[in-house]
Amino acid sequence: MNRAFRHPGALTHVTMALGWDPAPPTGRFGGERHDIDLNACALSFAGTQFIDGAFHEQLTSQDRAVRHLGDSVTGDGDGDNEAIAVDLTRLNPAVTTIVFLVTSYSGQHFDQIRNGFCRVIDNVTGIELLRFDLAGAGSHTGIVLGKLHRPDQNWQFDVLAEPIWAQHAIEAIPQLTGHLS
After folding, report:
1. Domain count, the chain
2. Which pLDDT tens digit goes with each residue over 15-62?
3. Which of 40, 104, 122, 123 is most deeply buried (CB count within 10 A of its CB)?
4. String of DSSP letters for the chain
5. pTM for this structure?
6. For residue 87, what is the domain's CATH number?
């Protein structure tokens, strides 16, 4: 599923959001629960070189243009559990690509997660550029959702939806080189 989202104007403010339901209680009396901890990640590259990111251990990029808005370790609550906001107007000019991904930090495969989803939204227009059901990633622990990049003067979003094996954002970096310009 490679598709470019051609925006009628320039993308300037984008959010990637992630949601899932908590693990159901297990055990003989239903009181035990093994939490599911998914992580939203945005990794910035200059060409093929990783230069910065925002994820659960680093909530804000060095240029402050990419911000993780809070880490959920259980999936409790309705709607989006984690979100990353990107202000493309404040981005370090060396950045050529931002890759959005989700990893299962606790190691569950996506087909074991109830009601898991990701979405990418143009904050200016409210248009949802991508909505992805995590069960579609099957028995993997990571998914490369898509990338923001500048083939010309304007930022563009390309859907990638590529399953990977990664429980942490840093483990994903070597698997991303084919998506970088």
Report:
1. 1
2. 999 987 766 666 565 555 567 778 999 999 999 999 999 998 899 999
3. 40
4. --EEE--SS---EEEEEEE-PPPPPBSTTS-B-----EEEEEEEEETTEEEEEEBTTB-B-TTS-EEE----SS--SSS-SEEEEEETTSS-TT--EEEEEEEETT---GGGSTT-EEEEEETTT--EEEEEEGGGG-S-SEEEEEEEE-SSSS-EEEEEEEEE--SSHHHHGGG-GGG--
5. 0.88
6. 2.60.60.30
